C-alpha cells in the first residue's frame, strides 16, 4: 500500500508542475480537454436545464391547480408540456449522465483521460448552442413546438418555425451524444489499466459501455424521423401526410424505435451508479456481478423489440399486440434480476445510511413502483384504457425522476468528495433526500388515480371531479422544485466553495475502486502511469 501512496504523492507533485502552464480563467473552460473539466461543464449545463425544465413543469402545475383556465392559454400550455419533456430528456438527464461518465470512467479504469480529448470538448460545446436554439423557439412566430415531446405527425406538420428550431437543436444534441458515446466506448475498450479485464470493471463503466452502444444505434433513427418531418414541412414530401399517400402512424413506429431504447439509455447509467453505492455502504461485494452484466446486456438487446407497446391504441393487428405485450413483459425479467441483486447485496451486510445510500435505497423503492406500473401498461387491454392518461405520466415520472434523477443525486453525494475535495453536508443531504422523496410521491402518486379515473394528459383544463388530486399534485410539485433549489444553494455551492469537512482519499468506509486511490479532490492529471496489478489489488479489484 505504501508504494501506492508514494506513487500518488509523486503524481500530485507532478500535477502542480503541470498547473503552472495550464490555461486559466475562461480559456481553461472554453478550450478544456481534461475529462474532469468537461465532466463538470456537462453537470452544470444539465443542472441549468433541470431548473429551466422544472420552471416549465411548475407552470403546468400552476395551471392545473384548479379546474378552468386561470393563467395560460391552452396553446402555451401545450408548448410548456412539449418543451418540458424535450428539455428534461435531452438537456438534463442525458448530459448529466455524460458528465458522470466523463468524470468517473477514466478514474475507474485507471486511464489518464478520455480517448479523444478534443472531440470531447467539441461534443460538449455543441450543447449550449443546441440549448439556445431549443429555448429560442419560444421567441419564434407561433411560439415553441406544441406537439408533445414525441413530436407526433401530422400535428408537427402544421406548426410554426419554432418546430424547425427544435428539430435542428435535436440534431445537434444527437450529434453530441454520438461523439460522446464513441469517446466512452474507445476509452473503456482501449485504455483500461493492465490487468483490469472487462469482467473486473466497475458496474458503472459496464452500464455506460452498453448505453453508449445503444446511443450510437438509436440517435440516427431519431435524426431520420425528424428529418422526414422537416422535409414534409418544407420540401413537398409526404412521409407522414395521409393527403399525399403517407402514413402518420409510420412516424410513431420510427420515433418509438428510437424512443424505447432511449428510455433505457436514461436508466442504465443510473443502475451503474446504484451498483457502485450499495456495495460500498453494505460493506460487501456486489451480489451476482456477472449476472448484473448479462442482465444489463439483455435489457439493451430486448429494448429494440418492444417499441410498439407505446402504440397499442393505434389499431395494431392482434398478433402484433401479443408480440409486443409478451416482449415487454420479458424485459421485466433482467430488470427484476438487478433489483434482486441489489437487495441481496444489502442482505446481512453491515449497512449504514449516509446520504448516497439513502438515495440508492430510495431509488430501488420508487423505481420498482415505476416498474410495476410499466408491467401493468404492458398489458394491451389495460393500456388501451390507460393510454394518454395521467396513469402514463405517473408511470414514466416514477421511472425517470425517481429512477434517473434520484440515482444521480446519490452519485453526486458519493463522488462529491472526489470532485470538490469536500464532503457534502450530511444533514443537509438528508433534508434534501427526505423532502425530495416525500414531495415527489405527493406529486406523482395521485396521478395514478387521476389516470385510472380517465383524466387525459396534456390538457389545460379538466372536470371538477379531478380537482382534489390535481391540487395535491401541484402542491407536491412546488415542494419538489424548492427541494432542488435547496440542494443547489445549501449543498452544491458550499461543497464547491470548499466549506465543510475536507475529504480523505477514501472518505467512505466500504468503497472500493481506483477512483479512491487518488487524492481528494482528484488532481488535474491522474494515472499518467497506469496502475499496476498490485495497485488494482489494493483498490479492491
Automatic annotation (TrEMBL):
The gene is ctaD. Cytochrome c oxidase is the component of the respiratory chain that catalyzes the reduction of oxygen to water. Subunits 1-3 form the functional core of the enzyme complex. CO I is the catalytic subunit of the enzyme. Electrons originating in cytochrome c are transferred via the copper A center of subunit 2 and heme A of subunit 1 to the bimetallic center formed by heme A3 and copper B. It catalyses: 4 Fe(II)-[cytochrome c] + O2 + 8 H(+)(in) = 4 Fe(III)-[cytochrome c] + 2 H2O + 4 H(+)(out). It comes from Polynucleobacter antarcticus. It is found in: Cell membrane; Membrane. This is Cytochrome c oxidase subunit 1. The keyword Glycosyltransferase does not apply. Keywords: Cell membrane, Copper, Electron transport, Heme, Iron, Membrane, Metal-binding, Respiratory chain, Translocase, Transmembrane, Transmembrane helix, Transport. Residues 7-20 have a biased composition (Basic and acidic residues). Belongs to the heme-copper respiratory oxidase family. Residues 1-20 are annotated as: Disordered. GO terms for biological process: electron transport coupled proton transport; oxidative phosphorylation; respiratory electron transport chain. Pfam families: COX1 (PF00115). One of its GO terms (cellular component) is respiratory chain complex IV.
